[in-house]
Design brief:
The structure is a homotetramer. With about 350 residues, chain A is an alpha/beta fold. Helix content of chain A is about 30%, strand content about 20%. The first copy, chain A, folds into two domains: about 160 residues, NAD(P)-binding Rossmann-like Domain (Rossmann fold, 3-Layer(aba) Sandwich), CATH 3.40.50.720; about 160 residues, Dihydrodipicolinate Reductase, domain 2, CATH 3.30.360. Chain A is globular.
């Protein structure tokens, strides 16, 4: 089956290529890039030398079964209707179809949504939550990296009403690749290495996406505090999540709830008690690692959730969604385990 | 004035030497080490080549004006009475005199306190809070690194009752040097680099120290959630602190409170609005950088506090305390600014 | 086919597991460890959670088709005769069978060779040089990481007598994982990060191994200067090689020689002119990247050769050798490309 | 005494500010920047908060005693005559006055030298070689970072004719700050971290500068091989230097030669035998660390030389030169030792 990638030179694009070139059932038929059309993919990215990946093309999308869109927000939604009409299944790794309410999109992304009528067509692509809905769909909104880590940690507990909704704080940490391949002082090695900082405090665009999904899980609308931080490493997200538990809820109840939710999941792992997730457990893989502890002194549960931002947080989850959309085994092409050390 | 250092080969010991060898009024007369006695300091630590620092000695403390103790907990308290009797002023960079209640010490450090009768003699060495008390003292409990960052961010706001006590969460991140110079898998480069993790979740020993000082500031005893994390960098602490503000308290009220508390402080800087602290601002210096934001959506203030764990979090603050104890200008020997990049 | 690993908890052992668990034709039937027998592999190494790898066993080797030995030198040779007698094919990732002369082994490894009579049975496992010889063998000496990078860059040029033998200098740089998983001050994050150093200057044990293979290629015995350095990164080797070229040899002659030697090789890539290898091109993969330039000003060729020390420099090459020994496609299980970024 | 800095926002500019604000005899009276004029220095660089450094100005240089020029090549030479006429002493941290031959400048820098008549007025600013000449001068060409490390290792040995001139190879490694503060893919954290590469192979602009000074030391003109590499760290240069020694020259002769040359030098340290320099020994300091070994097997000496590229390789050496020009103690303001860890 032929697939294409728009935005093939960014980090998400490169990661899609890395994973798809090992996928037994698909073939990369189109590598689109507005800035680098004409260049050979292998010369730009020598890690693929010998793979015969061909040249980057401009953004005229040929007939492919599935199109991955790794573009800045706004650009995908403007063209999606055309692709859907041509029978192309679209997996959007950008933000255009994640938020159900176009006004919320407008408020946080400072852009009038280019195609609000398509929003209801899209399914939010966390297979562990929406597997059935994804199977029949032609338009998947692949989640943000921070939302993936946060929602997988919280959703099962919220569905059971175990947590005090207004007490939830998500203190998240990300590697630098999350900022993309664009060069700026913010990603300059000498500014980032041996350094740690918070950014986007109380205004990061993943906030409404997290709130939307957590509110759906809880059955009530509520707000969270979400603070991302930049870690001097390339890949990985770790979310430390705090929530007041409702009266009578014990640590083992919380753990049992997770276990029930994830027992059939190949990519989600609840670690044995006392072993806390490290981002490197997930490095280069589509796996999720979870741990929690109920602090009796404060009545708060502390949850830690770990993913690789470019895999389960982007390209890997997109391929997991593609597998569902195409009716392939969900884990096809995603069997690799984390690189350690 | 002659000073000595016990535990001179650890990271705190090396940092004391680096700072003291530039201090115009003191002379390092004693470098004690149980493990490396007999070795030349310069050969062990070639960054000091040519400084004529002499040999490491065993732990027989000669007559010095001030003794810095950078030893594992328990070892300092067992010998402090003798030193005080000999007229030596003691600045303990360990944990022995930080907690006022020997039972709390016992509970968190799993050790019967070796000299509970000396605890009341000790002053908690954050000059910004206890300057007057430090001036006359012979025994200073130099604070832990996480407590220094946390307390400086919170104490002024708690004194004014601006925060809901039971809502306080401190999500802290530290460079690897905080784990000391001991070699273990936990500090192995290949395990730590390109990795991020939480540790000591809901059981780190700095928790009761933070709670003691914050409770003193608030005038009420309360608990906090404190979660430390390990950042793949050498130095630096950043604490992200969350608290529900009391009704009617605005961001400008909070900021004004900080400004009043710290306007005369040479080492504490409230950054201009919108500029968030980065650990590298403090690298190698005794300075503290603060920022806050009131998130109207959730009613929470988010505070970020940054220090260098080995300077303001250890050796630098110890010298600041020494200056106070000896009646020297408080900033003597501590004028250096952060190394950037 | 069942395979086993001795030394399964070291970095080479973990990398063997990572690669073998994706290999379609083999099954890991034995994970041996003298220090951690009894522990579950997944709990020690959570990146494999859910893979059902079983427990680590002591070093009693069961009947397996192939045994990978990732042990300190001396330990493998002492037991190899027994394994061979039982029909087990042995791939030694240690140093015991790399040197043809037991006296050279003695001189550099300070150990009497435990089984000199087996040395002639072993083939040196660089498939690009010794593919035919490896196919029929039961004992493979898997090369060192530095030798692999150095030999692949130089051997074809030496076979053609293009280089002045006594002019060869190999200035090599390695990531920290090359030092193994043992904790020491030499691998402590705070000592290694933001730091760079040479080590083992003019006395590293890979020197005689390099000299042996280069002398075989050249048809004359000669010495090289070899200096390894430690780079503050986890994986990767880059060797910068200098040699005086013989009269009349042009850059294009050198390049043509490489191209002829490697045109059929799946894992060796000569980059386009002007694109210099970076260690990250190879990260996590079995691929080799080469570039050269003839500096007309000095008459020297500068060669740069890059590998991942744990893959082509250890576990990957061992699996490549296993594939040859077992008559499987040489690249089976080794298709992955470098992780970028 | 008032001093000024042109190019005050680059890394060299920031390092000049860090060091000069602690210098007891000078005052920073002018911070010039073409791109950021009008901004407050402290807001751009919060590590200096509270230092009252004032605003960045455009490039109209006021009357100052000494002007540091940290500008791209070509810009300084075009204006130097004017400054000298006004009695301003100029210390150029760029490349304009390092090469004695304007045609060599033209060849390597692809620019007609803007003021060839001033070249003879300039002294090459390595105090350890040209102390007397620097004392009376108004124009100092502050050396490049790679040349400083290379020349200090080689010059004394070349003066005594101990080395075979055409055998010299300098394999140098630098931290990323050497590439400056400009943002590009080449300095992007995700491209540089966990990566190592050579660059500018056989064509780096520091080559003729090194050759000029080494030829002067040797009394004969000759060429070297010089290959720089990029290390995933911020600061530090380590040069590994190879040279064939002349017949009859022993390691102790070489060492004695160094010791004689540097016995009075405060900033140059020959380490005890067996202790090899690490870049971190010099971190943040103006010190140089040297070691050598004669490899009897090959007849080559291997020299390792270490500096901090921004201090002894730029701002620190510039201040050392300023002290000489102004008749101040040479080490004034440069007493700090390396930050470890």
């Amino acid at each position: 089956m032929k697939v294409g990638i728009l935005g093939a030179t960014g980090y998400t694009g490169q990661e899609l290529v890395r994973l798809l070139q090992q996928h037994p059932e698909v073939q990369i038929a189109f590598l689109g890039s507005s800035s680098s059309a004409g260049a050979t993919y292998e010369e730009m990215f020598p890690q693929f030398t010998g793979k015969q990946l061909g040249k980057l093309e401009d953004e005229q999308v040929p007939d492919v079964e599935v199109l991955f869109c790794a573009l800045p927000h706004g650009l995908t939604a403007a063209r999606t209707a055309e692709w859907l009409k041509r029978g192309i299944k679209v997996i959007d790794l950008g933000a255009d179809f994640r938020l159900k309410d176009p006004e919320v999109y407008h408020m946080w992304y400072k852009l009038e949504h280019p195609a609000p009528e398509l929003i209801p067509e899209a399914v939010y692509g966390i297979p562990e939550l929406y597997r059935k809905e994804i199977r029949g769909k032609s338009l998947v909104a692949n989640p943000g990296c921070f939302p993936t880590a946060s929602i997988l940690g919280l959703a099962p507990l919220l569905k059971k009403n175990f947590l005090a909704l207004n007490s939830i704080i998500i203190d998240a940490k990300s590697g630098v690749s999350g900022a993309g391949r664009g060069a700026s002082l913010r990603t300059h090695f000498s500014e980032v290495n041996e350094n740690f900082k918070a950014y986007g405090v109380a205004e990061h665009r993943h906030t409404p996406e997290i709130e939307q999904q957590l509110s759906l899980a809880a059955g009530h609308s509520f707000k969270v505090s979400f603070t991302p931080h930049l870690v001097p490493m390339i890949r990985g997200i770790l979310a430390t999540i705090y929530a007041q538990v409702e009266d009578g809820i014990s640590e083992s109840t919380l753990r049992a709830c997770w276990e029930e939710a994830y027992q059939e999941e190949e990519f989600v792992h609840i670690l044995p008690e006392g072993i806390w997730p490290q981002t490197k457990f997930a490095l280069g893989s589509n796996h999720v690692f979870l741990q929690l502890k109920l602090d009796e002194r404060t009545g708060r549960v502390i949850i830690v959730s770990v993913i690789d931002n470019l895999v389960k947080g982007a390209a890997g989850q997109a391929i997991q969604n593609m597998n569902l959309v195409l009716g392939l085994p969900e884990n096809m092409g995603l069997e690799g385990r984390g690189l350690w050390p």
